Amino acid sequence: MKDTPRIRGTTPEIEAAARRLRCNLTPAEAYLWEALRGKKLKGLKFRCQHPVGRFILDFYCPSCKLAIEIDGSSHDTKQEYDQVRTEKLAQYGYRVLRFTNEEVMTDLSRVLAEIEKVAFTP
Q1: Contact at 8 Å (CB) between 69 and 40?
Q2: Burial class for 89, CB neighbours closer than 10 Å (0-12, 13-18, 19+)
Q3: Is 70 part of any domain?
Q4: In what residue span(s) does the DUF559 domain sit (predicted)?
Q5: Are 18 and 50 in contact (CB under 8 A)?
Q6: Is residue 101 part of a domain?
Q7: Residue 9 in this model has a pLDDT that exceeds 90
Q8: What angle do CA 49, 51, 55 make, to 5 degrees?
């Protein structure tokens, strides 16, 4: 059994927000989701707009506790919040990868290679 603590459950409001986000993916999120869904990346199962505690992760792979965040222009002013959030998730044993919209849209193969590399690294 792992000795890392668990983030407590989500609220109904966060779960509803995650459902809304799943229906309104950004172009970069939709592009990456198409490449990840259905275990297309080396058999890894990913979830889209997945609530974890009070956070909603853009993508999450439960088998390796890997969160993937796509940072768009709305994230430009939220760097401090993103850092705190990443640190909080790390305290609970989650690994977080961040990519920009531009990286996903212009170099998807490199993004997928980085995800695969981290996912299979203990």
Answers
A1: no
A2: buried
A3: yes
A4: 15-117
A5: yes
A6: yes
A7: no
A8: 100
Asked if the structure places residue 29 within a domain, the reply is yes
**Cα–Cα dist 80/3, whole Å:** 28
Note the pTM of the prediction, 2 decimals: 0.87
Residue 79 has pLDDT above 90, yes or no: no
Write the DSSP assignment of 11-55 as a string of letters.
-HHHHHHHHHHHHT--HHHHHHHHHHGGGTTTT---EEEEEETTE
Cα–chain-centroid distance for residue 81? 15
Query: Please, what sign has the CA dihedral across residues 70, 55, 92, 60?
Result: negative
Q: Is the CA virtual torsion 18, 60, 89, 75 positive or negative?
A: negative
Q: What angle do CA 64, 69, 75 make, to 5 degrees?
A: 160
Containing structural domain, residue 112: 12-119
The CA-CA-CA angle for residues 22, 83, 13, to 5°, reads: 35
DSSP 63: G
Q: pLDDT tens digits, residue range 108-120?
A: 999 999 999 999 9
